[in-house]
Amino acid sequence: MSKSPRYLLVSVPTSISLANSPDEAFTALRSTIKTDHGTVFPFNIPEFKIGSLDTLVQQADDLAKLETGCEGVVGKVGDSLKTILEGDEEKITQQMMVNDKPAEAYLKSFHWNRVKYRADKPLGELIETLQKEITSIDNDVRNKYNQYNQLKTSLTALERKQTGNLSNKSLTSIVDQSLMIEDSEYLETHLVAVPKQLTREFIKTYETIAPMIVPRSAQIVDADNEFTLYAVTTFKKHSQEFVHKCRERKWTPRDFTYKAGGKEEEQKEVEKVGKEERKVWGEALRLGRTAWGEAVMAWVHVLALRVFVETVLRYGLPLQFVCGLVQTTPKLVKKARASLDVAYSYLGGNAFGRDKKGRVTKDDSSTSADMQAAGHMGDGGGYSAYVCYEFEIQ
């Protein structure tokens, strides 16, 4: 079960109060949710420039898609942080901040960022700005984390070469130049890693598995718990056959060319890639922290726009509404919504009614279908009589 709070962004007209007062309307909204089901905080949304009805309907659809995209980016950035911090919950929590405070605190004290998203601009421009921002965040984080993952993979491969067994580890620090036949027109040295349980068979048969193998040329180069490494001399024209026959017998031929200074060069490469990996790890962590906070901010601003547009479409003009943030839990969110349904079902007109026991019922299925077709079903696929969006920041 998720430990994160569940939130509802709820908008109702000020007409729910007798005096049509915003303060009284918010007090009424707050009292609708029982204290053991959730807590209601004010969520102030400025007024924006409104276009035509057709434009608003299209913008409602655009915002629904954009909100899904924002939620996805927040999730992906969060997953990247969890990966780079290796699932350390304490460190992850420290990094997941919005304006240097937890997301919960940011939501409770939300104010529209008028510097970044000027409220005097048309809604279409604000939506476009937010779309570009969330796309940029997604691209930046993906590119940086891909860079980090590539370096991590390269470093792991280099380290594995130094710490594996004789069938796969680097032989640079193991094989002496004197063991290798170099610059011969006819002969060459092969290195073969033989499993410990097959060494007796190898000694008995290696001279006969292919033509023109130098007799008694096998020398032990090194051994570990799993393999013994042998050097064997063959004539070049039968080298491929010898290598093929080794593989058939589950002996591992090692491709190796001696290089002066190779050991030092290999160690320098490990150190170089390790240093770069640590550097990019820090960059990815800093970017992830910043990007997660910015993505959450963009998401919440998109939610605010969704509430505003839906409020205009649902309640009409002149705009007289209050918006509240309900903080609850995944277990209690249904009870919180049920309280809201009971209190504000009348706002839905014929879409809602009550049975003989006073329970809310939906009388007109065609209304629900029409709202769904217009993209105004709210979250969860069910039409509510009031504007309500449910979300969770994980």
Architecture overview:
The N and C termini lie close together (12 Å). The strands form three sheets. The protein has a four-stranded antiparallel beta sheet with strand order 2-7-1-10, sandwiched between helices. A four-stranded antiparallel beta sheet has the order 4-5-3-6, covered by helices on one side. It is 48% helix and 14% strand. The relative contact order is 0.20. A hairpin with a 5-residue loop joins strand 8 (353-354) and strand 9 (360-361). By secondary structure, the chain is of the alpha+beta class.
Overview features:
394 residues, alpha+beta, four-stranded antiparallel β-sheet, 10 helices
Q: What's this, in brief?
A:
With 394 residues, this protein is α+β, with helices and mostly antiparallel strands. It contains ten helices and ten strands.
Strand adjacency order, main sheet = 2-7-1-10
Helical region count? 10
What's the number of extended β-strand segments?
A: 10
- Poorly predicted ranges (pLDDT <50, ≥5 residues)? 350-354, 356-360, 363-377
Inertia-based shape: rod-shaped
Structural class: alpha+beta
Question: Could you tell me the mean pLDDT?
Answer: 90
Largest sheet: 4 strands, antiparallel
Radius of gyration: 34 Å
How widely separated are the two ends? 12 Å
The run of helices and strands is EHEHHHHEHEEHEHEHEEHE
Strand proportion: 5-15%
Helix share, percent: 40-55%
